Amino acid sequence: KDILGMPQGDKRKELFLNYVPQLFYNTKKGKVLLLGKAATGKSSIKEVIFKGKDPSDLLNKSLTPTITLTPSVHSWLDLELGIFDTVGQNFDDYLEKGKSQIMAFSNATVIIYLIDYAMWLNNSDLILEDIKNIKEILERELYISEFVLFLHKIDLIDEKNRAEKINQIETEIQEKTNLPLYFTSIHPELLYSLYDAFCHVIRQQSAQSSILKETIDARIKELPKTLCFITNEQNSIIVQSMTSDFDYRRINYMHNLIAQTNGVFESMKATEQIKYFLLSTFDNFSINMKNLGLSDQGLKNIVCISHLRPDQQIRIVDDLSDVIKTKIKDL
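Given the sequence above, the corresponding structure tokens read:
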């Protein structure tokens, strides 16, 4: 075996070494390392965020456990991201100095440590020790990585006590780690939390993502009950913003409704000159979808949902579209 622990001539080593330079040696490249114990949800997050898998399917049928460090490359706006999904059963190996640690941590721009909510309840001291060990690795090896925490599966917290419990956990973890912390879930009713967390983390690495978020936030902040997001060519949400009075419990319904109509919109665009796709719901929500015409930038549709009249919403979507095109092309 060679220094990577692979047999001489192993095709996996050849593949790995071939695309490592593509991941790391360009300012537009990045590496996201997903760390955590077994069954914390690392692979499910990757499937939902980067492959557009239906989270309901993943909740009903668990993925096969990851058995080897699994890298994959995905486009995210102006970034080419290498997503490294680690083996939960081998988590302790990544904390020990050696080839597993080097392959995992080396050149990581973002390290996301997943904390399973149930595991936190039963083994919070052990989890805090893991976090301490990871911080020590970064300091000792001089790795320049953003280190963030996802406390995952918050759908397991009773809804009546969820806000109080999250505040309690956040206070405890922040006091002991002083690291960025996000509360996430792939449960359909809470999926927005995962999109928001990932968008915020990647925003620090991507000039485009930062500009898009700031632009949408500024435009909708004074509007009533408004949700706005942008999708990429894989129909994944890459930027999302909503006003404080928007009922987050409706987000999953809106996402599903748009997903069901997206195929119709695509078919109409292919055969006719369609500029907008408008829907109205019985509870007075208007949904406006418009293609941004920025496929070369990895951007597909802008979607706005609100209680505004359709004509008002069209003006907002047009304004946002024009500003986004100008700012993105000026980068």
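The CA atoms of residues 202 and 209 lie 7 Å apart. Try to locate this feature in the token string yourself.
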